[in-house]
Amino acid sequence: MKINNERAEELSDFDWVRISFEYWDHDSFEKARGVNGRGFDIVLNNLRKFAKQKSEKCVLGAGYIVSKLNYKKIINKI
């Protein structure tokens, strides 16, 4: 789900929002999504914006979806 301004405003009043990642860097994001450019940066920037505008009661959590394709790379990010 893309977090645009309208959706961020709706989510900001939730008690808890969890984001799941399966990519560990720009290259893995672009390869898996079949896109070039700043996609990974856009995702991270949108999360940063959301973290700043969410209500104080809203807990923002993040986690990785671990698979045999990414576990060696993700373990280095933890």
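Second entry:
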Amino acid sequence: MAIFGKKKDDGDKAAEKAPKAKAGGFAPDPAKAASWFKHASVSHQSTNYEYAMTCWLKGLAFDPANREALENYYKSAQA
């Protein structure tokens, strides 16, 4: 009686775990970024600067061209 399942091929396992790229590459998503920026702003105002910095960076991942968010990130870092 076998307790363990059948061993899979290592090549198949690597192919399953590989991330699938989008057809068009990176596409900014300002709506998702705005949500992160809102959380960051609230966190900054409540003096939770470390979490605010994390939120600014998460939002910048969705909208890297947002200069205002980058400036606010540095404000949280300096506080």
